[in-house]
Amino acid sequence: METWIEVVVFGLQRGAIFGLVGLGLALVYKATRILNFAQGELGTVPAFAALMVMTGFETVGDEVADRGLLLPATVVAVLVGALLGVLLYVVVIRPLGKVSPVTSLVATAGVALLLTTIEINVFEARARRFPRPVNGGFDLPGTDVIVDWHTVVILAALAGVALALAAFFRSAPGVALLATAEDPFAAELQGVPVERMRALAWGAAGALGALAGVLGAGVFESLTPGLVTSTFMIPAFTGVVLGGITSMVGAVVGGFALGIVSQAAIQIVTTYELDVPGPPQLAVLVVLLAVLLMRPQGLLGRSA
Amino acid sequence: MPEQTKEMVELVDLRAGYGALPVLHGFSIAVAPGEVAVLLGLNGAGKSTAVKVLCGAVAATGGSVRYRGEEITGCSTAGCVQKGIVMVPEGRRVFGGLSVERNLQVGSWTQRGNRGWVEAQRAHVYEVLPRLAERRDQLAGTLSGGEQQMLAIGRGLMANPSVLVIDEASLGLAPVIVREILKIARNLAEEGTTVILVEQNVGALEVADVGFFVDQGVVTATLRGKELADGELIRSLYLG
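Predict the joint structure of the above. Result:
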């Protein structure tokens, strides 16, 4: 019983990060119909920016990050993420114009590789220690399960993001963004600056990615080049597909589902001493295949 | 100084097209403030292209667009909306995934700084188009065709237009709804909004102050007064 409670607790922790990455994916897909495979690096690059703020811009040294600077460092990271998102749209996506989804997908994957390579060149291919905003944990009442305070921080951050997004989608720019996503020409006829709305969506996705990067690096208490792409991107993408790809709620629900599935996979393989390599990754891919085969429109999506 | 004019909208010797395909070959009309103007003609005659040039959605290759006597050729769509020229597009194109109320909110984008005006205008739109008020929380995609057309008009009104262009309002609607929509257009003009209707439906002439018959990219006849009700004349225009 206790082990399954642990599965849920860790599942929610990972799932919340998947949800943050997934919200960025869903937002960009909704606004511009592009699968952004660089979303993960919109998390890693800002996380490195945060690390630089906390270490006094020590790119390759062993300078320990100053945890007291985590809050301003996160603010910097979010700004870097937003800027990177807008740049990605303006410099790469918009000049491509109307191309097939495969072309834009390959372009974003190329950007992800490029950014990872830059990270390796600047910060070397090694792990740097990365702080959490709150250390330690607490006993879940009535059990022996220890819940990290960091898990609470991540869930609170996700809840904050959800509230902010809900408010945004009621505001004039938010509603105009939804209208642009649905029918850009009709939105333009009302005077909505369609290109600026799309850039806004990419910027917001970058900010969400940055938050995922900083909190995700905190999960491992370490940061390596390509971290968010290699650990959170595929489950987040699967969660978004499960949730219905354009659904914001679906991205979060899907993220939590994938978080719990991947932790459960680890638990099952350990319990039954199965000889299966990479159980969480395998479980995620099985879910992805199952969704694509059985319910391609996702749980909360409408068939496109 | 721009020359003074009593016309609200003038298209003068307009030329435009899509890529290598020219559609307008010297298209000219003039519409006075508060008039209902109807552009009538067959499919592909160039009516829609002409109003799209007026709204900045298609670029002119020659000629000029004048609004209140001011030269505005080449104005962007957003710029035209700011000035008060608003188009309700063909096929209605309401935002199906958004509620009626949210559709109106998108409509008020250029006026969003003026909350008081937006509130009052929304109340006014619901008064003029009471069916929208009944369905304000319903998703636009679930409305009937006639209701969607009313919503598209209401959305256009939220942008505070001086000139409202309605492209093919009657397409695919039941005759009784068409009559209702035309009456709404007439009432808007009575309130002072200049209305330009792009129509294939001759019945629209009943609410018109001026009718322009369009054929192969030019205006071939301008009808006013009694001519608007002259069935013989209109039939001869259509049959060439």
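The radius of gyration of chain B is 17 Å.
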